[in-house]
Amino acid sequence: MNEAKEKRDEISKEKDKNYRQNKRSQIEEHSSDASSSKRVKYDTAQNVNNTSSELSSNNSEKRNESLSKKEHSDNSLLVIQHYNTILDDRKKSRILYMRNFNNWIKSMLMFEYTNEIYGTRLKALDMCCGRGGDLTIQECQDRYNEMLKQNSAERKYSPIFTAEFITADCTKVRLRSKFEDPSINFDLVSCQFAFHYCFESLEQAECMLKNASECLKPGGYFIGTIPDAYDLVWQRCDGNSFGNDIYNVEFFCNKTKPPLFGAKYHFKLGNLVNCPEFLVYLPVFRKLALKFGLNLVKFERFDSFYERMKNKKKGKHLLKKIQALETYPSQHGEMLAGNPDKDYQHAKEYNTQKTSNRREIGTLSQPEWEVIC
Ligand SMILES: C[S@@+](CC[C@H](N)C(=O)[O-])C[C@H]1O[C@@H](n2cnc3c(N)ncnc32)[C@H](O)[C@@H]1O
User: Fold this and answer.
1) What's residue 82's pLDDT?
2) Are strands 294-301 and 38-44 parallel, antiparallel or unpaired?
3) Using a 6 Å cutoff on CB, does residue 192 contact ligand 1?
4) Whose CA is nearest to atom 8 of ligand 1?
5) Keywords of this protein's UniProt record, alphabetized (predicted)?
6) CA–CA separation, 269 vs 368, rounded Å?
7) Which residue, by CA, sits nearest to atom 26 of ligand 1?
8) What is the pLDDT of residue 110?
9) 185: left (phi over 0), alpha (psi -120 to 50) or beta
10) H helices of 23-171, where?
11) Could you tell me if residue 305 is left (phi over 0), alpha (psi between -120 and 50 degrees) or otherwise beta?
12) With a 6 A CB cut-off, is 190 part of the ligand 1 pocket?
């Protein structure tokens, strides 16, 4: 146990050092052999540190740290019910642009990795699509059916893609057994803004990763986006909660020494998100993924990903098309999403330093950037 503690302290010190060096810079890891095994690529909304021990610590310790079975099902239910009941008032939302920006990140991530996969017909599995663009799975299916109808009526040829919709808890159920064709393999498995829910317990994380891995073809990619535990844990705040006008994080675990699994916090974002989430400790994630044949090839922060993709043709076009950034100063007398007096200082400063005469820039309000980076 003492050795384990020493090891934990050592890791914690190392993380602290790295965190300070890497704050706001890219975290990138390359595998030695990414071509033969399956690969995992994760992007994070925030920066990371954690003080937990490695996965190899003894089992009884792990079990004590994680939550009871009853609590697990309560949390899963809360998350799913929450996403099924939120009203879709995106148009009125204070965080409309931030959500569009997140959609841009997801689209560009998928674009990057589908481009890596050559072949005639790409097969992809979207785990935890849930409301898929904020719709229930039924609405998602209806929307897809509508697309099919339009496509064949207007263009008179077979649909662009076929799809199957499955309602299941990815952390508890073997997905393969639910597919119409249980022998199907996918080129890409994606899990956007949802993988962290499985870190409620070791069993759930294993089930999720097993699902992802066994559905992938050799050489395929598992991609996703999660909040970055290091940043959450390293937020300098008194007490157990922090946030700003639009978001709030409150910890329900020992923040200075969170458990490997079940490190619970409550995340509230605007009037749309309000549910329990769990910290994902990167070394454990990497080790567990390896156990299921997934090799971590890249881990990147949103700010770095944005810098890398924003000037690519597709990135530029999509930023405009889906209004992933807000125009500052506002146009045609429209109201800004944030408070014009205090939320756009960065944009004002940027404009005063600019040499060109064009005043309009694309940005987000400061509180929204704070959620993303
Ligand atoms: C933040 S939303 C992201 C939805 C979608 N992936 C996207 O990016 O728009 C999280 C989604 O994960 C779903 N979810 C959470 N836990 C799940 C689980 N254990 N199994 C399946 N879906 C889950 C929720 O229902 C919710 O729709």
Assistant:
1) 60
2) parallel
3) yes
4) 192
5) Methyltransferase, mRNA capping, mRNA processing, Nucleus, RNA-binding, S-adenosyl-L-methionine, Transferase
6) 10
7) 130
8) 93
9) beta
10) 59-65, 69-85, 96-116, 137-155
11) alpha
12) no
Comparing 42-46, 283-287, 299-303, the range with the smallest average pLDDT is 42-46
pLDDT in tens, 230-277: 889 887 677 889 999 999 999 999 988 999 999 999 999 987 788 999
194 lines ligand 1 (CB under 6 A): yes
pLDDT at residue number 56: 28
Under CATH, which number does the domain 70-132+167-301 receive? 3.40.50.150
CA pair distance 46, 235, nearest whole angstrom = 10
- Are residues 278 and 263 in contact, defined by beta-carbon separation less than 8 angstroms? yes
pLDDT digits (tens, 9 = 90+) for 310-334: 999 999 999 999 999 999 999 888 8
CA distance 143 to 205: 31
* Mutational test site, ligand 1, from 72, 83, 137, 322, max ligand atoms within 8 Å of CB: 83
pLDDT > 90? residue 69? no
Give the nearest ligand 1 atom to 102 CA: 8
Q: Which two tokens stand for residue 126?
A: 């979207």
Nearest Cα to Cα of residue 209 among 220, 200, 198: 198
For residue 51, what pLDDT is reported?
20
Q: Please state the domain extents for the chain.
A: 70-132+167-301, 325-370
Whether the CA torsion 300, 302, 307, 311 is positive or negative: it is positive
User: What's the whole-model pTM score?
Assistant: 0.78
Ligand 1 centre distance from Cα of residue 173 (Å): 15
130: alpha, beta or left? (left if phi > 0; alpha if psi -120 to 50): left
Query: Please, which residues have CB within 8 angstroms of residue 176's CB and are 6 or more apart in sequence?
Result: 182, 211, 214, 215
Secondary structure (3-state) at 80:
helix
Q: Which two tokens stand for residue 133?
A: 């663009």
CA 171 – CA 296 distance, rounded (Å) = 20
CA of 43 to the centre of ligand 1 (A): 16
